[in-house]
Amino acid sequence: MLDKSIHPHVLRHGCAMSLLQAGVDTTVIALWLGHAGVRSADAYVHADMTIKEKAFALIAPVTAMPGRYQPTDQVLAFLDRL
Question: Strand, helix or coil at 1?
Answer without folding.
Answer: coil
